C-alpha cells in the first residue's frame, strides 16, 4: 500500500498544479516544486515529533506539563449541507462557490482543530526552547568547575570508568523513555514552525505573497452572501476575516487559486528542499484540498437536483480552477498557457480534446453483445439481428407515449495515445510499476442537457410549458415539484433560496435556457482508452412537435475543451397504452 501511495503521489505530483490526488496529469513545471514540498513533508512526518503535528490527532502529542488538546472534531453533515445550499444562487460565480465551501460549519471545525493543535505545539516548543536555554546557561557555569575533582589522576581507575559508563547508560535510557512517552525534547528540533524557526515558510508567507499579488483580501468577498454571515468565536459573532479558521480557509483557497505564481516563487523553491516549510500549514492545505474537492462534487449534485444550468456550469468551472490552480480559467492568456503546456508535455496531439464522431437522439438502441472474436455462431447471428434492429430504431420516430428516448454519442479521446506514452515514460523514469500509475488515473467529464420546443420555422415556441416525461408532474415549476415530493434537499432551503431558484424558471424563455433536463457524469479510468460510447436516457416530450436538445460537455480536469452541439428530433403523437386489465381476455359467463 505504501508503494502504491508513493507511486501515485510521484506520478501525479510530477506534472502540474494538482498535487495530492487529481485525475488529470499535473502541469509539468509546477509539479516539481510541489513534489519537493511533499517529499519534504513526508520526510518531516517520519520524525517522531511530527506525530505531534499530524498524528496529534491520534493523541501522541507530548512534552509539556499541560494536558493534551482533544483531537476529536464533532461534525454535522446535515447542518453543513444546509449552510452550503443556502449560500448558493443560480448566478453564483466560481469564487462565490469556493468562498461558501470555505465557510461551512464542518470546514471551520476541522481547521479550528488544526489551529488548536498547532497552538499547543507552538506553546510546548517555546517552553522547550526556554528550558534548553536555561540548561545551556547552567552548563556554561558548571564547565568552570570539574564535578569529579582532580579527574586527571582517575582516568585509568576502573571504578571511575564504571561510573562514567553507568552515567552514559542512564542518559540513553532516559532518552528512550522520553521518546516512548512522547517527551523526547530532541523531536522539537525536527519540526520547523513559521514564526519561531528562521526562514520557515507557512501561512503568513502565503498571505503576504497573496497581498502582493492583489489576491488578499479575497477578491469580491464583500459582494457575496458570505459577507453577511457571522461566525462563532469564543462566544462572540465575528465576520469571515476576523475568524482565525475562516481566514485560514480563505487563505488556503486563494493560495490554491494562485498556485501558478506561488509554486514557482524563488523563496518556496529554495525552502522546499531544505525542509524549511511549516508542516502544520502545508499538511493542512493538502487535506483542505481533498475536502474542497469532495464538497464541490456534492455541490454539483445539488445544482442538478435544483436543475440549475448556470449554477452547475459555475461549479464545473470552480472544480477546474481549484484543481489546476487558476483564478480565471477563461482568459485568452490562461487558455494559451494551458495549451502550450500540454503540447510541450505531451506533444501536439496531447492537447486534451473529445471528438464527437456520431450523435443520435431517439428511440434507445439495443445494447451490444460480446466482442466479435468471443462470440459463438448463435451470438454472431443475434448481433447481426441487433444491428438491423438498431438501424430500424434509428429511423423510428419518437412518440409522446414512449417510455424513454436516448442520447447516444461515439466519442474519441484525441489525447489518449500521447497521455499513455507520457505516463509509461514517467513510470520507467521513476521506477514505478506501470499498473500502479495506471490505476491512479481518473479523467472526469460532465454532460448537461437542456431542451426547447420549436415552431415550424425553427424559432423557439414560447408557449411550451417544459413538459417532459411524467404528465402529472413535468409541467410544474420545478421548485414546486420538489416541495410536493418532500425532497430532502428542498427541505433544507431557506425561503430566500427557494425564491431565487423559483425565479430562474419563471418564464418559458428562462426555463428553456436555464433548466437542466439531465446532468450526467462520465469518468475515464483507463488512460489508454481512445474511443467509447456514451448513452444517456432522457424523458420524451409529452406534446407532438419539433424539439431541440442542447448538449454541453464540460471537463472537470482541463481548460478550453468544452463541447456544445444541438440535436433536433420530431415527436409524433403516440397511442395511449391500455391498462393491464383491459388487455386481459374476457371470460365467458
Can you put this structure into words, describing what you see?
With 589 residues, the chain is an alpha+beta fold. Helices cover 47% and strands 13% of the residues. The chain is built from 21 helices and ten strands. It has helices spanning 2-15, 28-46, 50-53, 77-85, 94-102, 105-142, 158-180, 203-212, 244-257, 259-262, 266-274, 279-305, 309-324, 332-346, 377-393, 416-430, 434-439, 478-485, 495-503, 508-514, 580-583; strands at residues 231-233, 236-238, 354-362, 398-399, 405-413, 443-454, 518-524, 531-538, 545-555, 563-572. A five-stranded mixed beta sheet has the order 4-10-9-6-7.
Provide keyphrases for this structure.
five-stranded mixed β-sheet, 589 residues, disordered N terminus, alpha+beta, single chain, 21 helices
List the helices and strands and how they pair.
Elements: H1 2-15, H2 28-46, H3 50-53, H4 77-85, H5 94-102, H6 105-142, H7 158-180, H8 203-212, E1 231-233, E2 236-238, H9 244-257, H10 259-262, H11 266-274, H12 279-305, H13 309-324, H14 332-346, E3 354-362, H15 377-393, E4 398-399, E5 405-413, H16 416-430, H17 434-439, E6 443-454, H18 478-485, H19 495-503, H20 508-514, E7 518-524, E8 531-538, E9 545-555, E10 563-572, H21 580-583
Helix pairs in contact: 1-2, 2-11, 5-13, 6-9, 6-12, 8-9, 12-13
